[in-house]
Amino acid sequence: MSDQRGRDTRQELRRMALVASPAPAAQAAEAELRARYEFTMVDDADVVIALGGDGFMLQTLHGMLDRHRVRPVFGMNLGTVGFLMNEWRLDALSDRLARARSFSVAPLRMDAETIDGERFASPAINEVSLLRETRQTAWVEVSVDGRVVLPELVCDGVLVATAAGSTAYNLSAQGPILPLGSGLVALTPISAFRPRRWRGAILPETARVSFRVIDPVKRPVSAVADQREIRDVSVVQISMDRSIALTLMFDPEHALDDRITMEQFAV
């Protein structure tokens, strides 16, 4: 995370763009908003309104990264969980934007090489995960900053999560919740068989994590950066990309930092 606290967004954001997921509820909400407010194209906007769930929010942010036209995003939940979204309301949109708190998010960068020597790079806002492709468990060598810390991790997979993503897949894999501004990332195994007692690690966000797949032909592994999958990887390197900053906007009463904190008390 590149911003430790949500900051008040007091300047008036005049030009709004609107994007919506294909889900019927999001499409209906889009029609209502367009009937009430004026919107422009994403590249011409000061802020983007995104309608959908967390998956659509990640899709929206990745779309802006692909076009190198980053804009603040105010999401409204018309999906299932909506952890990265605000409550859906039609009224007082301009007032909500004027009062919103903004959080700047630095994504991870995944550099992956396949068994055929192909190379891929992709950002990840929530996490980068390695997952076995077959019934065979994955065998992975884990290094941190060039030092081998686990010569052989036998597992269903392993992931590196940001603070913003620590309450998503990372949490379901029994990984730690990381407060915003902690300057940390989570390294979490997925159903580790060996070492049996290893439950993961918390690392500084400056750390560079490397995974080398042991016997990737017999035990194939895929690498997933949020929603982008690269199959049959042999080596994956992950680091925080400080050259990019994405901004998420939240109603003050439902700000991201408070949500992440309160997740630690969810039962």
TrEMBL record:
One of its GO terms (molecular function) is ATP binding. GO terms for biological process: NAD+ metabolic process; NADP+ biosynthetic process. Keywords: ATP-binding, Cytoplasm, Kinase, NAD, NADP, Nucleotide-binding, Transferase. Its cofactor is a divalent metal cation. It is found in: Cytoplasm. It catalyses: NAD(+) + ATP = ADP + NADP(+) + H(+). The active site is at D54. NAD(+) binds at D54, G55, N126, E127, D156, A164, T167, A168, Y169, N170, L171, S172. Its EC number is 2.7.1.23. It comes from the Bacteria. NCBIfam families: PRK04761.1. This is NAD kinase. It comes from Sphingomonas chungangi. The lineage of its organism: Bacteria, Pseudomonadati, Pseudomonadota, Alphaproteobacteria, Sphingomonadales.
